[in-house]
Amino acid sequence: MRFALFLALAHLRRRRLQTGLALLGVGVGVAVLLTALSLTNGFVSGLVQATLKAYPHLVLFSLSEELPPFPGRDLSEVEAYAPFAATKALLTRPAEGARGPGVDFATLVGLGEGGEALYPDLGLRLEPGGIYLGSALQQSLGAFVGDRLYAMSATQERVELRVLGAFRTGNYLLDSAYAFVDLKTVERLSGIRAQGYQVRLKDPWRAKEIGVALAGTRFFPQAWQDTQRTLLEQLSLQKRVLGILIFLIVAVAALGVANLLVFKVVEKTPEIALLRAMGASRLTVGMVFALEGVFLGIGGVLLGNLLGYLLCLYLSLRPVDLPGELYFLTHLPVEMRLSDFLLVSGASLVATFLSALLPLFRALRVQPGVVLR
Description:
Elements: H1 2-14, H2 16-52, E1 58-62, E2 78-93, E3 102-111, E4 130-134, H3 135-141, E5 148-152, E6 158-167, H4 172-175, E7 178-182, H5 183-190, E8 196-201, H6 207-215, E9 219-223, H7 224-227, H8 229-267, H9 269-277, H10 282-317, H11 338-355, H12 357-364, H13 368-372
Parallel strand pairs: 3-7, 4-6
Antiparallel strand pairs: 1-8, 1-9, 2-3, 2-5, 2-8, 4-7, 5-6
Helix pairs in contact: 1-10, 2-8, 2-10, 2-11, 8-10, 8-11, 8-12, 10-11, 10-12
């Protein structure tokens, strides 16, 4: 074993340029993959945060006609809660002066006491007869703060509202279709009483678990992961596809390692035959090239982790700006995760080790008698 280790290190030191290029090839592939995954993580987190600016972490739908008391008053995981009711309505703005009328459909979310605390990023100050519009919905209606709007329900009920303000989450689906009013406005408009509670949690990713704990027999829990399942699945698929495509860079680098080791086997064939003739076993000869593949794989992965970490750190300190009018993010976020580093490192090592099998088997097939003759 010590003899094989000595020969493997000697081979790598003798061809410094080839060894360095092989390490750099694996390292760059690993670094690019880690950076791409970290950027994808940041994008997903940014989209989720934008969505949750105007979307409840957890909804508890009441299973009885009368709304029961909120069951999680003393739960430390709950930051805020409020009774709610939601309905679809046609919003119209009458023509005023040189401005023509505005018409659009919207989902009106009526919030009871404590509703403003559910969405602290929106700065809601709800009052009877007032409405907060999504930014895209406000633009569609051509409405300004203080304008009069009329909301009409499917039952032909009509309520006059005054625009109190607008909010922008960056998620166009929310900004173009949602508006917030007080709970009594929804009751007057549609006759719907409080349907349950909207809940804000310290950790929104625990919404399913906490929803089950709070529901009991009086509520039906609905976590945001359930209503946004399609979005989360699409983002997850996007990350997996991106990871597979960029992993091909690592695979190409691993083939470069295999090519280097095969070249060494061909170059060292006379030496391999001489070692075999002098009593070295097939296992010892094979271990030389196996150890070279291990060193190149581990060295390349360590280099890639270092380069990837430094590149992600640079992008987090000096983020790439994005045009705010096109994206919901003003800069490209980075979110490094230990699990990604471990997964990429493991997959890259496996790819490199597998690529080293070809030169290993080639070295084992060298026949000393044939070569020396």
